[in-house]
Amino acid sequence: MNWDHLAEGIDVLRFWKAVPPQEGEAEIGVLKLSSPRLTELRNAPREFINKHKIFDKDIRSIDLEPIPQTYIGNSSALIVLKHNPTCTCYAAIAADLTLVAAA
After folding, report:
1. CA-to-CA distance for 36 and 42, rounded, in angstroms?
2. 3-class SS at 76?
3. CB 12, CB 59: distance < 8 Å
């Protein structure tokens, strides 16, 4: 599985393309975002996800876990996305890439 490059500072792993979900299961993806793109996601998450066509269908709503201020402006991040069949989405910060690179 490879990262799909969507735009400057936006890459996505689309797990549901490699392992299709069973009936009623969520699509899972991981976003790799630069700091400026993380700010965009934080400011307008639903619009960001739909604009960049992260999923095959637009989401109707998103529950975005709070992004700590320390992430903004200082690093890139991995964001795990769970897109439910009802077109709702849950997103959570998975890792600060600065910390991952240092390990």
Report:
1. 10
2. coil
3. no
pTM of the model: 0.82
Q: Are the C-beta atoms of 33 and 77 separated by less than 8 Å?
A: yes
How buried is 101 (Cβ within 10 angstroms: 0-12 exposed, 13-18 middle, 19+ buried)? exposed
- Taking a C-beta distance cutoff of 8 angstroms, is the pair 50, 58 a contact? yes
Contact 30, 97 (CB under 8 A): no
Spatial CB neighbours of 54, under 8 Å, sequence gap ≥ 6: 6, 12, 29, 31, 81
Q: For residue range 30-57, what is the model confidence (pLDDT) as tens digits?
A: 999 988 898 899 899 999 999 999 998 9
80 is written with which tokens? 């795990």
